[in-house]
Amino acid sequence: MENPPVRAIFALHVWPELETGTAGYASGYLMASSDNFILTVEGKGAHAARPQEGIDAIVLAAEVINSLQTIISRVLDPVEPAVLTIGKIQGGTKANIIAEKVEMEGTVRTLNETVREKIPVLMENLIRGITKSYGASYSFRYEKGTPPLYNHPDLVQAMLPVLEGALGPGRVVAVKPQMVAEDFALLAEKVPAFMYLLGVKSPGQTSVAPLHSPYFNPDERAIPVGIKAMCHLVLSALEQQAALKSTTGSDRLR
Questions:
Q1: In the chain, where are the structural domains located?
Q2: In what order do the strands lie in the sheet containing 9-19?
Q3: Is residue 91 within 8 Å of 103, Cβ to Cβ?
């Protein structure tokens, strides 16, 4: 990225909600950050018929899961998008035994770095308080992943007419920021970037399977569309190197 210096980078991502032959874009944030966590709550096992002798980790986990959602709905500013999802939970051994331990895994998505820093602190404060009230214990590991994906506004403004010229009038539409994530964001932290969404839904198709679904079936006619769009962007950027540099008075548009 330094030798030779890179002034701009481009990427596309297939998007099943847009029709083949179209593309979507956002100036500024396009996709969210992606962080993961592993949470284990530990109580005390007992016979299911004698709950007073144990600390039910499943009941504890249920309260923790419900309470974690209040971070999004009641603690954070509602105009700042954030998602907290627990996608995996495992606990208990038999129907007649109170579970001693429950393990959970989840993900957190945000568009704002300040909010991103707050969430794990808020999570652990809440988890600590609930487990203490039960006389239980916990372990909590939070791992930062990719940052939010930021499309540099100056680069988008310079290249949007090129993308529209490649696909045709009315074929490039503005889209809202998405709470999915993309590791292209790591490069976008270093170099001005423009990622756009390539439509892969067959015209007239009423319903489509989402990304990462085993039923996802993109329209392969979108392949030459994506190639054409990317070639136009890259060739135009090479032709406009001086203009890209002067947009903000910097080699890196920063």
A1: 9-32+148-248, 34-146
A2: 9-19, 193-201, 23-25, 172-174
A3: yes
Provide φ and ψ at 50, rounded to 5°: -130, 65
pLDDT of residue 249: 45
Q: Give this prediction's pTM.
A: 0.91
153-176 average pLDDT score: 97
- Residue 198: CB atoms within 10 A of its CB come to 22
pLDDT digits 0-9 by tens, 182-194: 999 999 999 999 9
**9-32+148-248 belongs to CATH 3.30.70.3400:** no
Beta strands in 82-165 (DSSP E): 82-91, 97-98, 101-110, 137-146, 149-151
Q: Which residues of 133-148 are buried (b: 16+ CB within 10 A; e: fewer)?
A: ebebebebebeeebbb
Amino acid, single-letter form, for residue 179: M
Query: 188-221 pLDDT, tens per residue?
Result: 999 999 999 999 999 988 888 999 999 999 999 9
pLDDT per residue as tens digits for the range 78-91: 999 999 999 999 99
Q: What mean pLDDT value characterizes the chain?
A: 94
Spatial distance between the Cα atoms of 169 and 161, rounded to a whole number of angstroms: 10
For 47-70, give one letter per residue: b (16+ CB within 10 A) or e: eeeeeeebbbbbbbbeebbeebee
Which residues, at least 6 apart from 69, have a Cβ–Cβ distance to it below 8 Å? 84
Look up the CATH number of domain 34-146: 3.30.70.360
Q: Is 102 helix (H, G, I), strand (E, B) or coil?
A: strand
